Amino acid sequence: MKKVISIGCFLMTALVTGTVTMSCSSDDEPKMDYLFTLDAGKPDTYGVAETRGLSESGKTLNAIWQAGDKAFVYTDGWATKMGELSPMAGRTGTNQTKLDGTVSSTGVKKGDWLNLITPRDVIDYSDQTGVLADIASKWDYATATVTVTDFDNGKIIASTAQFTSQQAVVKFVLSKSSDNNPLNVKTLFITSSSGQLAVKSTLNGSVTYGNLTVTAGADTNIFYVALRNDNASGDTYTITTTDGTTTYNYTRSDVIFKKGKYYIRNVKMKGPDDTYSERENYGDADEETWD
Length: 291
What we know:
This protein is mainly β.
């Protein structure tokens, strides 16, 4: 799915209908593959981000559906992959589209839940490049759950799907604290003190936590990063980089990057001459007379 991201809530609404061509013993439990058609609408908010590219306008990222976008369909609990959906021909370029594709209906019946994920069904935040278009196609995950409500005359009817983002997108703009000039580097290292920065996850929620390394194709002072932090409270982030001769870092505490939000952070990175160690003074004496 091509997506637009705008600061605010990350929510994508999709009206789901499906078309089935089959012969089966029960309308409630089709046994063959069927064509699943998804009417999908995107508001101009983050979380409906593009899979082929995100367009940034000021502080807003705008989303549209594009050819080649995919939504993957699974049975309840991400147990079995049923197939994948893509925008129909002639229905791209806007925030409204129809997604369709052939999915396996084996075992699916009225009342079942189905899980959907876009833009891909491998959750892996490692090896990011700092490029917005790459986030859109690889790391801007959104999921939804729908209910099969009926089968009628070769059609499968499902409930409305509301896709929600699984991460924040943060634009880091780096400069040197010593002179405010842009700090152009190739690699950014990001750590959190909670240790709950997601690196990988299975679809059913088994998460590998760690640090993120973002490597750009060329030196730059702007890095777009998809960040999923499962720590519910404020966290302490440390950002480290080098220009080849000098190592720079910045630490910020009590930071919350909420899922489905877009953030711009102008970071004044500190070199070795800009950092120091400090001890707290004892302060004024608390004087008493003991007699």
